[in-house]
Amino acid sequence: MTLAVEQRAKAPRPLRAEAVRGFPPFAGAVVAVTLGVLLAATAKHWQGDWGATAGELHNALVIAVPLAAAAGCWQGGRERRRRTEELWGTVVRSPLVRFLAAALPLTAWVAAGYLVAAAAALVATAPYATGGGPHPGLLPGDTVAPASAALLGHVVGRVLPTRLAAPLLAVAGFVGLGVATTARSGSGSALSPAFPIGDDQLPVWWQTPAMAAWTGGLALAAVLAYAARRRAAALLPLAAAVAAGALLVHTGDGLWRPDPLAARQVCDTSATPAICVNARYAKLLPQLKTALSGITGKLEGVDNLPVRWADRPGGPHRDEAQLPMLTPIGWSVVRGRLTDPKQYAWEAATALGGYPECKDPRVLQLHELVEHYLAPSPGEAHFDELDAHGTKADRAALRRRVAARAHLASMGAKERRAWLSAYFATAGSCDISGVPAL
Q: How far apart are CA 107 and CA 149, in angstroms?
């Protein structure tokens, strides 16, 4: 009895041997490193924004899925390259067991590689997060997709007797996913595991299991059709995949829902106008308040102002001004910090006027004057320098602008508040007759 136990303990375990050495661990490392390099190259466009991070990880499937399929295909052709197919045919284990012993370790390592890259991205985002929390809804389905691709690739590697099968499969997968992800509508976009989503979108609760059933069902059906003794068993996962695919195609754009945070605002009402930012970027509010403090300080006591700067989907309401855009991440905001507070303040000052397209140059000059007082444009000095070395008319226009700026700055506080109140009373109109001339 003891001898039998010892013999079983010493018996070779092919699944464990495949999992701890050879090609599968290397393939998992390649997936993790490749995705890590790609994510690092675009870090400023997602780091600090949970929605952008989830979207970038999801978009990385365009690379992860073909890479996993190629790895599976290469692993599947291993016995042919080693010329050990006939030897394996003499093993007592069934073809399906032998197939799974070779395929499952690689599948697990590929999935682990993707999860390692995802975990690294989430850890990289956390210190700079601007609001909200992680979006893990897509992660299970996104992990199943490359794992399924590895299984399908293994079947292809067993069937196609050429070393070129792996690179050709990778190219075909990349092109196919690229075409499907660029489609705006249609069955290809709904069935693509890498179809891009917006930073402010979340999947409906059943999207992830349906996508996992679609990709995983196809992979399992291919495996059973190739290796199972009763190939009719492949019909069950195939039916599940077809049902899931039909559900995805039928739902279409309904697979995604807006992030509830995107419809909420977080406001600082300690100044006038108040500063309201999308709740997804609530942690940026102190920075915005500091950047706009020069404007709000100069507008203290001024009438006819917008109630607030607002950051609403679809634009501000009638009594609001548009808060300058914070998205897409990587321009105005990088890793949780405003990149150019002066530029941001100038854009906010410009939004307060709310003037339509007016051809009257006096309206534009008046608007530029108020902008200069509240928050000068970062490019203003450059254009003034050009006019100073320009034509006689350019130099005359510059002198008038400089004189008007000096006049507004030299006014008493009460007089300036009255003048600014008259100016903001004309917001949204080209009629400036109510604004006293300087």
A: 8
